[in-house]
Amino acid sequence: MGKVHPLLLSRRDAVPWAYAAAGTAAIVTYLVTSSPARYMLAALVSASVVPAIAVGVTRNKPSSALPWYMFAAAMAPYAAADVIWGLYQVRGDEVPFPGVADMLFLGSYLLLTAGLVTLARQQAGRLHWAGLLDAGIVTLGFAILSWAFIIGPYLRSELSAWPLAVSIAYPATDLMLLSLAARLMLTIGTPTPSFLLCVGWLVILLAADGLYYGTQATTGTAIAEDLSEVGWMLSSLLLGSAALHSSVAQPALPAKNQERLPRRRMSILIALILMGPLIVLANVGGIRGQPVNVTVIVGMMAGLSLLLVLRVAFLAQYAQGRAIALAASLREQTDLQKQLTHQATHDPLTGLANRALLHERLESVLGRCSANSSAGLVMLDLDGFKDVNDTLGHPAGDELLVDVAQRLTGRVRDQDLVARLGGDEFALLVEGVDARTLHDYTTRLLDAFTDPFILAHGYSVHVTTSIGTRSVTKPTTPTEALRDADTALYRAKTAGKNQAAFFESPHQV
């Protein structure tokens, strides 16, 4: 279980506190008095649960009252059995076994089981096999204890068939309650105060039953009977308080990632699995001399081992799923990083490199240029682009820029860098070309604008370009190269457009 809602005292919760105080007073009275009449206090406390649940459901209006009504229906025969048992104690008579009280007790446990099944379906949400396996391991682990200390001794006793069946029915119904309690505790992530009170009711009820029937089975008489009686009274008190608490209307949130196996839970499960071997090794009750009991315990141990293997398999599957999810998340993060990097270094309209990436590549290339390893920088500016924007609109102008980018990239090598500097201005960085080859590049780029551009809606647009070129044959800074190419571009435009100008003529390089 995870976080817990705070148990804050409010006016609305004054009723459950008053109820708890009255019940505590009854328990204290039971402990400090020695009159046989004190046994009727147990009947009074268990009987009070029925109206407490009725009042709690009416006041708090839980989303589903069905499990609480089933608990109330279960506590009615439970209280009746307490009355019968108490009356025998008051009169000093021996309580018949098995008798009507036993039938009422067992019937109430079956109704409590039905109520817990309904509550588990509502509170725990959809079925989680990992949580069910954990609950199965807990139940089977305690079943080994129940067999060793209660059921086994009863089977070795001289009880006849009917008393023996009733004696074994008590721990059997307790195991059913334990299984449901374990499922609830292991599958709820954020318990409410009402839910915690329910857990306390079940834990104390099962502990009191275990103490009473365990000592009765092994010694023939119930040792610390008053302690068990106080436990039963306290458990009834907690159930009534759970119904009266205002948080009964709040659903307990199911635990997330129930496939996880926290270290503390793993330690508990391993301790339960080791319970059987320890009982056999310690020869509890001379069990090693009882082949039937040893066989049963070994069988339960095998079942526990199987459940643990399945649980580990679920854990491995969960870990694999988490690993796959993590890998997918890392891939997504890497893709996003690449996308962000691309957006930071590329023009969003044309997909070409932007000014930042061009400057970065210029620094890398121009710094190692020489007569034997020259490079070229070409700058282009469209002629007549403003007329396209003014007559056809900016969307048509954007479409034209995209088409220009495609034509430029189609006229150069893969290793050449084509960039859009902004507006209708483009640049080209080529490596390993001399001045003559750079002149051929420039001619090829001018030819790229010979054919008109066909835009949407069938518009045919003819634009030309002016080109300024700078050949680099020695280490040069990007700023210098861009300045020189821009100077050449200005010369080309002033010379009449649709032509190229070189900052340096080929025979000067």
What would a concise description of this structure say?
This protein is 65% helix and 8% strand.
State the secondary-structure class.
alpha+beta
The helicity comes to 55-70%
Low-pLDDT segments: 1-9, 505-509
Largest sheet: 5 strands, mixed
Chain-averaged pLDDT: 85
Share of residues in strands: 5-15%
Question: What's the total helix number?
Answer: 16
Strand order of the largest sheet: 4-5-3-8-9
What is the radius of gyration computed over CA atoms, rounded to a whole number of angstroms? 43 Å
Shape: elongated
How would you spell out the order of helices and strands?
HHHHHHEHHEHHHHEHHEEHEEEHE
- Roughly how many Å apart are the termini? 80 Å
* Strand tally: 9
Number of domains: 2
Topology summary:
Layout: H1 14-32, H2 39-60, H3 66-91, H4 100-123, H5 129-156, H6 161-187, E1 188-190, H7 193-219, H8 225-244, E2 253-254, H9 263-273, H10 275-281, H11 291-345, H12 355-366, E3 375-383, H13 385-392, H14 394-410, E4 417-422, E5 425-431, H15 435-447, E6 453-454, E7 460-461, E8 464-472, H16 478-494, E9 500-502
Parallel strand pairs: 8-9
Antiparallel strand pairs: 1-2, 3-5, 3-8, 4-5, 6-7
Helix pairs in contact: 1-2, 1-8, 2-3, 2-8, 3-4, 4-6, 5-6, 5-7, 5-9, 5-11, 6-7, 7-8, 13-14
3D structure, described in words:
By secondary structure, this protein is an alpha+beta fold. The protein has 2 domains: 14-325; 355-508, Reverse transcriptase/Diguanylate cyclase domain (Alpha-Beta Plaits), CATH 3.30.70. The protein has 16 helices and 9 strands. It has helices spanning 14-32, 39-60, 66-91, 100-123, 129-156, 161-187, 193-219, 225-244, 263-273, 275-281, 291-345, 355-366, 385-392, 394-410, 435-447, 478-494; strands at residues 188-190, 253-254, 375-383, 417-422, 425-431, 453-454, 460-461, 464-472, 500-502. The protein has a 5-stranded mixed beta sheet, sandwiched between helices. It has a two-stranded antiparallel ribbon with strand order 1-2. A hairpin with a 2-residue loop joins β4 and β5. α7 runs antiparallel to α8. The longest helix is centred in the middle third of the chain and has 55 residues, at 291-345. The two termini are 80 Å apart. The model is unreliable at 1-9 and 505-509 (pLDDT under 50).
